[in-house]
Amino acid sequence: MKVLVTGAAGFIGMHTTERLLARGDEVVGIDNLNDYYDPRLKESRLERLRPSPRFRFVKLDVAGRTGVERLFTEEKFDRVVHLAAQAGVRYSLQNPHAYADSNLVGFVNILEGCRHGGVRHLVYASSSSVYGGNTRLPFSEHDNVDHPVSLYAATKKANELMAHAYSHLYGLPTTGLRFFTVYGPWGRPDMALFLFVKAILEGRPIDVFGHGRMKRDFTYIDDIVEGVLRTLDRAPGPDPGFDAGHPDPARSDAPYRVFNIGNHSPVELLDFISAIEAELGRQAHKNFLPIQDGDAPATHADTAELTAWTDFKPATSVRDGVRQFVAWYRAYYGV
């Protein structure tokens, strides 16, 4: 297949592209290489991909309508994995316009490209953040998600609604993947694991929000990518059992689906830090702080729908995942 991966220089984008190339697909990767975090890390990720003769990189911002239109017209993609987005819950409180540009305008441009380009399946990144103010755990795709607590979450919910509209109007098969706290080698510098490891190795205190009592369904990158590929390979069709009189958020009479991809095993932040300390052989100096605006007290993925659809269930333990990240971090930064 010929696959477009947006955000190819990103954390999930690089790993997804590697897997697609390894199985023989042709991949065009795009990224705007912005400076939300160190662009040198993004360039290093691309250097892992460039040796493949089946990979080609195009520097492109998905928010640029003309460039995206030209790309789809010239390339004729079979499938699209849309991972490009302005990430980060907390940053959305500081720079909301970046989220409108990338996550809303950019997504419309991708949808239009898929529509006019005859793409057979669009898989796109949603987020566990869409569950917002929900308190019933585990989070299920069958739950209502109309109460976001950050603009980032609102843009991801909007993406799901926009995808449904295109699936309904134009028969475009779309699958949204609600990622739960992704971590692992080559991870983002703004994520907790990266920040904690860096600070502990440098002898600096770490900020522990929610006084360490928050719980997250930490999901290892390899499990995320396996879920991406398995859903990419199975395009949804209309659900004949959909009842418009009693609509189920996880079902549709259009070729549309959403799935949680999480470890189904939430871990308290203090326990996550303990796993890091054990791997580094050092104790962290902790600065306990209240929970931040936009953060959820807990996340927990119900993965029954994903397992039923793909026969796959993420299962990498936090200790194994942290070990892999620390090994990469030490090797990459020489510490």
User: How far is the N terminus from the C terminus?
Assistant: 40 Å
Mind describing the biggest β-sheet? 7 strands, parallel
Write down how many β-strands occur, each being a DSSP E stretch of 2 or more residues.
13
Low-confidence stretches: none
Strand residue content: 15-25%
Morphology call: globular
Helix content bin? 25-40%
Order of helices and strands: EHEHEHEHEHEEHEEEHEEHEHH
Radius of gyration using CA atoms only: 19 Å
Strand order of the largest sheet: 3-2-1-4-5-6-11
**Contiguous helical run count:** 10
Mean pLDDT: 96
* Estimated structural class: alpha/beta
Summary, kept brief:
The chain is an alpha/beta fold. The chain is 40% helix and 16% strand. It is built from 10 helices and 13 strands.
Textual characterization of the structure:
By secondary structure, the chain is of the alpha/beta class. 40% of the residues lie in helices and 16% in strands. It is built from ten helices and 13 strands. It has a seven-stranded parallel β-sheet with strand order 3-2-1-4-5-6-11, sandwiched between helices. Strands 7-10 form a two-stranded parallel ribbon. A two-stranded parallel sheet has the order 8-13. Strand 4 (79-82), helix 4 (96-117) and strand 5 form a beta-alpha-beta unit. The radius of gyration is 19 Å and the shape is globular.
